[in-house]
Amino acid sequence: MEFEYEKLLDKAYKEIPEEVKHTKRFEMPQVDVFFEGNKTILRNFSQLAKVMRRDEPHFQKFLTKELGAYTTLAGDRLIINKKLFGKKIGDAAKRYATEYVICAECGKPDTRFTNLEGVRILKCEACGGWRPIKNI
Questions:
Q1: H/E element, 14
Q2: How far are the Cα atoms of 19, 46, 49, 61, 97 from residue 110, in angstroms, in the given order?
Q3: Sign of CA dihedral 79, 80, 82, 83
Q4: Which one of 11, 26, 95, 130 is CB 3.0 to 4.6 Å from 109, fit for a cystine?
């Protein structure tokens, strides 16, 4: 049996599951904030940390420094002792993802923190790339 390359390619593409066909795997959820007096409550803080596969204290520490406000973790929510709009918090979360989650080489979120000769690095499990990261 002789098949043409294009027919084989079409057949293979049809057999790929739908969820694998999408090229964008990492989608940052929108931040969900509300105000309570002079405090801003980030309702989906735990969800954001879970999507990025990072521990909550590290993400919280980054947001505390980035937003210049004291923060407290209360269950799944982050309480920020300052009145901030969602766009500013969302931008800070995107900076965190760029700096501490997304691989600079391949652009995939399949990364983890590790140490290399005493230096903390971000290592990509997809392409094997790595780069040093700043300590917070």
A1: helix 5-15
A2: 17, 19, 14, 22, 12
A3: negative
A4: 26
